[in-house]
Design goal:
Chloramphenicol Acetyltransferase; single chain; four-stranded antiparallel sheet
Length: 398
């Protein structure tokens, strides 16, 4: 017998560490070559780590939610015979790319100490919900076919601890993609002094134009949304405000201003908040913006987005759609310096001369990095955006 140490390989792309999100083995298990050991997550891609050797697990290092540096020992095994070389960096990178394309959710971690000869069955969505609620599937009684755990079983189990009117405290460990989102939000709020600005915009004419264009669109043309018009409006205004389409590296004090306009679209997905990117919006017409917006939003939602489709934005649009509310204070997508968010459209009576008329009104909420964008310039930018949206013909005039 010999000892084999399975170490976290170099995944590449500047990754120095990865977070453990699921264990598939426990001490004492005898495993085969290529059997899954654990899942780690880095940069919103889940990577499965398989054993390059056959052997018996003697030690596991790292709990679910712990971060392990590249090169650290994760699994110790007793092995016999020839040992296959460890996973190479190129193999690890290939797994990252494959998992980022597949977008499949990895199963919730199995307990490291207890063994169950009949492991619970549940859909990936149910497993993800259990992980977010801190529920072990082994503790839940399934009511589905052959004991399959259903979402209502989780709800029943979760509410079962609240008896006799007593208050309960539930502790949920934040791991995986949700933890990465949290870390990025902390980084943005800690390092960027936000300046927020909200303005009211009359979008009656814009909505009328949008409805007319959609009613006349060809079968191969996408449905136009408000965001497509906003994208074209940003493209028109950014040449006069180059500091807004930029990245600020506060470590070396360098502002990078971009001629290309790569617009990030903050979108809620089953995997959490993601920002797919419409690249080179300045080279696209209204219909092409809508088409690409539809495409990148879909691949983000279904988990098939490639790495390059989630990186490289120079300015971000964020929209809550029908949940847009009256106003918001959006958080800047670091290292960008600006984010724009349309709110909900409502009909209101507006005085025009001696008459009351019905108009469609929408607030535009925005945040700017106050180190780079002065309040006066931020206000001028939003006022010009307001003018373009209220007179949509300006979008099409060079």
């Amino acid at each position: 017998m010999g000892q084999y140490l399975f170490r976290l390989p170099d995944i590449g792309e500047g990754v120095a560490e990865a977070e453990i999100v699921a264990w598939h083995v426990k001490v004492g298990d005898h495993i085969k070559e290529d059997q899954p050991l654990l899942d780690v997550v880095t940069d919103k891609a889940t990577v499965d780590m398989s054993s390059p050797v056959e052997g018996t697990i003697t030690a596991l290092h790292g709990d679910v939610g712990a971060k392990a540096p590249v090169g650290s020992v994760l699994v110790e095994l007793d092995v016999s015979g020839q040992v296959r070389p460890p996973v190479t960096a190129s193999e690890a990178k290939q797994r990252v790319a494959q998992n980022a394309r597949s977008g499949e959710e990895k199963p919730v971690a199995k307990p490291v100490v207890a063994q169950n000869d009949n492991p619970p069955t549940a859909s990936p969505a149910t497993r993800r919900q259990a992980m977010e609620w801190g529920i072990k599937l082994e503790d839940v009684k399934g009511s589905g076919p052959r004991g399959r755990i259903l979402p209502e079983d989780l709800e029943r189990h979760r509410s079962g601890g609240k008896t006799g009117g007593r208050e309960s405290v539930e502790e949920i460990r934040v791991i995986g993609v949700r933890r990465q989102i949290a870390d990025r939000m902390i980084q943005a709020k800690r390092q960027i002094p936000h300046f927020s600005y909200v303005e009211e915009v009359d979008v009656t004419e814009l909505e009328s134009l949008r409805a007319e264009l959609n009613s006349q669109r060809a079968d191969d043309q996408p449905k136009l949304t408000l965001l497509a018009f906003l994208m074209r409006a940003l493209v028109k205004l950014i040449p006069d405000f180059p500091n807004i389409n930029a990245h600020y590296n506060d470590l070396d004090g360098v502002l990078k201003r971009f001629s290309a306009v790569h617009i990030g679209i903050a979108a809620q997905t089953p995997n959490g908040l993601m920002v797919p990117v419409v690249r080179h919006a300045e080279k696209r017409d209204l219909w092409d913006c809508a088409r690409e917006l539809q495409r990148v939003s879909q691949v983000a939602r279904d988990g098939s987005a490639r790495r390059e489709e989630l990186l490289g934005s120079t300015i971000t649009l964020t929209s809550l759609g029908p949940l847009g509310g009256i106003a918001a204070t959006p958080i800047i997508n670091y290292p960008e310096v600006a984010i724009i968010g349309p709110n909900k459209i409502i009909e209101r009576p507006v005085i025009e001369g001696a008459f009351l008329v019905r108009r469609k009104i929408m607030n535009v909420s925005s945040s700017f990095d106050h180190r780079i964008v002065d309040g006066h310039d931020a206000a001028r930018f939003i006022q010009k955006l307001k003018r373009v949206l209220e007179h949509p013909a300006l979008i099409f005039i060079d």
